[in-house]
Specification:
434 residues, alpha/beta, D-Maltodextrin-Binding Protein, domain 2, 2 domains, 5-stranded mixed beta sheet, 20 helices, 13 strands, membrane, cell membrane, periplasm, palmitate, lipoprotein
């Protein structure tokens, strides 16, 4: 299986690419109007990428003559809808958003993705520049030689923190994971009106943020082919992450994912927020946080620094009734022009040319925090791992058990030994299933 190893740093993955992509020559007779009059049904995750892109929906329809029909849901509801449609082999969805690091192996095994590799070789506009896309992110979407999606962004959880609150409370910038607890304790004593630390607590969503703690503290999901939560490193990561949320997190944190975290921090009600870099535009909406925020990767632990780094992709359903028109939408949405537009609205670009674009550099220079955001993303690109959850076909289900282990400690319904043992048993059972 040609797939990016989930624990491989992105910089190393660039050197270890196993798929040889031929030079792409644009079709001489490429015509953006080739599918005029067709309709493409797009199932979107209501996240910053889709909401930003869809502001330009009219441009796509004017360029191609293709009507774009959009159904947009929050992430969990989107996946529920998508699973129902694809399980039924229905043509109700033509294009959908996917996380290769999460469901890629599962969806590929089920035959739900259309292979996009032939399109990138034969049906591509002259200015598309497929080779400009991040090789590591392209590789992450390759399963059994099939290209299942085109990269939309690069992202990972980063620490947003309030410099004014840190200064008022005499808290230094955290240099180690253990400093987070020290900082949170001081902030709680200094400013009772502010939530000291916030991150994901929702069971199916928290593996995204918890994984960074696990890897930085020297742990891994598997050791010698078995679940490794009950190793000293695994138990330390569970205890640390759950303890921060239990003792210093917001009320109801077990229901928190990206939306709640962004709202809380933007409103000035959390001092530290460990959440997606992809939420940068939403966090900064209104401008209140631009002047009192600093950004950084999660501080290193005993295992070093191994930030979580992933990217969304855009895929065509294997059951689409209009796959060629669907590819035109994918091609437009992931084109250099559109990714440059989105970059200047806070969507981290997966194209090297966009990062070096003069307009993008000028946009970054307008606000120091924007440049800090890009610098932090570069650390993620250089050092990151895309291992989120157990690297198995049933990865999405594995995240429920990871979340349950954290929630057991967060809610005080069991000890760390009980939590890790239950997780190991469940995850080993998943790993044994095909």
């Amino acid at each position: 299986m040609a797939i990016l190893h989930r624990s491989m740093p992105f910089a190393a993955a660039l050197l270890a690419a196993s798929v040889s992509w031929p030079a792409v020559s644009a079709a001489a007779d490429f015509d953006w109007r080739a599918h005029e009059g067709e309709t493409v049904n797009f199932l979107a995750n209501n996240n910053p990428w889709s909401t930003t892109l869809l502001k330009y929906q009219g441009d796509f329809e004017k360029l191609t003559g293709i009507k774009l029909r959009v159904d947009s849901y929050q992430e969990q509801q989107m996946r529920q809808r998508l699973t129902t449609v694809l399980n039924a082999h229905s043509d109700e969805v033509d294009v959908f958003m996917t996380l290769p690091s999460r469901e890629g192996m599962q969806y590929a095994a089920a035959g739900w993705y259309k292979d996009l590799k032939p399109y990138t070789e034969q049906t591509v506009s002259p200015d598309y520049k497929f080779g400009d896309l991040s090789k590591a992110l392209v590789e992450a979407a390759v399963f059994d030689g099939a290209l299942t999606g085109i990269p939309l962004n690069i992202e990972g959880p980063i620490l947003y923190y309030r410099t004014d609150i840190f200064e008022k409370c005499g808290v230094p910038k955290p240099e180690k994971i253990s400093d987070l607890q020290t900082a949170a304790k001081k902030i709680k004593e200094c400013d009772s009106s502010t939530t000291p630390f916030a991150s994901r607590g929702l069971k199916p969503a928290l593996a995204y943020t918890f994984s960074n703690f696990l890897h930085n503290m020297g742990g891994s999901y598997l050791k010698d082919g078995k679940s490794a939560f009950c190793t000293p490193e695994g138990k330390a990561a569970l205890t640390t992450y759950a303890g921060l949320l239990r003792d210093y997190g917001p009320p109801g944190v077990v229901n928190y994912s990206f939306y709640q975290l962004t709202s809380l921090y933007r409103a000035g009600r959390s001092a530290m927020s460990f959440q997606s870099s992809n939420e940068f535009p939403g966090v900064m909406e209104g401008g209140a946080r631009l002047k009192d925020t600093a950004l950084m990767p999660l501080p290193a632990g005993d295992g070093g620094s191994h930030p979580t780094t992933i990217g969304w992709a855009l895929s065509v359903s294997a059951y689409s009734a209009h796959p060629d028109a669907a590819w035109y939408f994918v091609q437009w949405a992931t084109s250099p022009e559109m990714q440059a537009r989105l970059a200047m609205e806070g969507i981290a670009p997966p194209r090297a040319s966009v990062r070096d674009n003069a307009d993008y550099k000028a946009w970054l220079a307008e606000e120091p925090l924007r440049q800090s955001w890009q610098d932090t993303l570069q650390v993620l690109a250089d050092q990151g791992t895309s291992e989120v959850g157990v690297p198995i076909i049933r990865n999405p289900e594995s995240r429920e058990y990871i979340g349950q282990a954290v929630n057991t400690l967060l809610l005080g319904t069991g000890t760390v030994d009980e939590a890790c043992a239950a997780a190991d048993q469940a995850l080993n059972g998943l790993s044994a299933q095909k």
